[in-house]
Amino acid sequence: MRAADPYSLILAFLMIQLAALGALLADLQRDRDIRDLGFLLGRVLQIFGWSMIFYRDVLPDGISVILGNSLMFAGICLDAATLVKLSRTPPRWYRRAVAAALAAFVGTVLLELPGVLQRERVMFICTLIHGGLMGLSSYMFFTAPKVSPLRMVLSASYGIAAAILFWRGWWLTGIGYYRLTDPSLPQVASILAAFGISTVSAISYGLLKKEWAIRQMRVLADQDGLTHLYNRRAFMRLGTEMFQRARSQGTPLWAMMIDIDHFKEINDTYGHSTGDEIISDLAFVMNKVLACHVTCRYGGEEFAALVLDPDASKARALAEALMAEVRRSSVMGISYTVSIGIAGMRGHKNLLGLINDADAAMYMAKRLGRNRIEVYRPGEPSADEDPMGDRKEREMEEALG
């Protein structure tokens, strides 16, 4: 079935690519970003690749078919990888899959030179590799942790392109001689798919950069600047959600309050910069021991953690592991210790009561000599009876806004 002239489509495609390249260069002058260079290189490689393919009748096969197709596909790989990286943190296997797809594509094209593979077989294999990359990228957009309408558009676009390329692969199995100028519908549709993906990618790149910047601003707003743990406001927001879920499901939830012992003396003796280093070191240890739990720098030298699911013995074991790791740690040859208070849910109506109990247990650990763990037991002075409790409640209310 005759659909259109592929050469006319490629020429139009190159014009669009050049326009997109100009827009990217202008954006790069205003807001230079290392990711722009990857996307820009992808565009340049595609332009060179498609230009060599366009002049197939003029250039030698070694340049037009092998170098042209290789550059074109390398640019497509850079496009897809950059967009996926802006959408989510790509897993290592995805990066390896993109590299493997590029190596397989180039290797297949090179096999035509010694006559190991005929052109039709080369185009068939390369089309399947191209379709596989499109399908994999579609999956990465679709399974991003926070799906947005833009990522759904990208997922659908890449998915449609994958389907068209697999259709072209099926068509290639039934032809006797491959020609770029073949006006058959699958051939034309695959060029139009490349045209569509290139256009959607160019538009989406700028929008994804804005989405990424907004996400980064939200992350920074939730992070403590020194430790990169959650700050108190974010901790209370996430902790309230955890508390309500645990309460409705009857799941155990434990709170830990962790305080660096004799921190004022450390600052007075070694200086505030050393104190900051010790605070950062404790945050590193907490990330190591409590990686699967919600942790925060609550304020000053005080930290908090919420531990979901384990019973009392497991919660205490985590606290003991944390304390043991701290005892093994040192900063510039200076050792330090912590006091830890643990409390579990006992009919509290909100997270505040749970945190107050853990805080009371932590101050009990300090009164009993520091460098120890105390589990809150009903009957001990709680935050409602302890002068420190009033301070904590005011701080909690401020944190919740």
Indicate the topology.
Elements: H1 6-30, H2 34-54, H3 61-87, H4 92-110, H5 119-142, H6 149-172, H7 185-222, H8 232-249, E1 253-260, H9 263-270, H10 272-289, E2 294-299, E3 302-308, H11 312-328, E4 330-331, E5 334-335, E6 338-344, H12 351-367, E7 373-375, H13 387-399
Parallel strand pairs: 6-7
Antiparallel strand pairs: 1-3, 1-6, 2-3, 4-5
Helix pairs in contact: 1-2, 1-7, 2-3, 3-4, 3-5, 3-7, 4-5, 5-6, 6-7, 9-10, 10-11, 12-13
Helix- and strand-based class? alpha+beta
Strand content: 5-15%
Q: Classify the fold: give the CATH topology of the largest domain.
A: Rhopdopsin 7-helix transmembrane proteins
- The number of helical runs is 13
DSSP, total strands: 7
**What series of H and E elements makes up the topology?**
HHHHHHHHEHHEEHEEEHEH
In whole angstroms, how far apart are the ends?
66 Å
Mean pLDDT score: 83
Please write the CATH class name of the largest domain: Mainly Alpha
Largest sheet: 5 strands, mixed
Major sheet: arrangement of strands: 2-3-1-6-7
Protein name: Diguanylate cyclase (GGDEF) domain-containing protein
InterPro entries: Diguanylate_Cyclase (IPR050469), GGDEF_dom (IPR000160), Nucleotide_cyclase (IPR029787), Rev_trsase/Diguanyl_cyclase (IPR043128)
Keywords: Membrane, Transmembrane, Transmembrane helix
GO molecular function: diguanylate cyclase activity
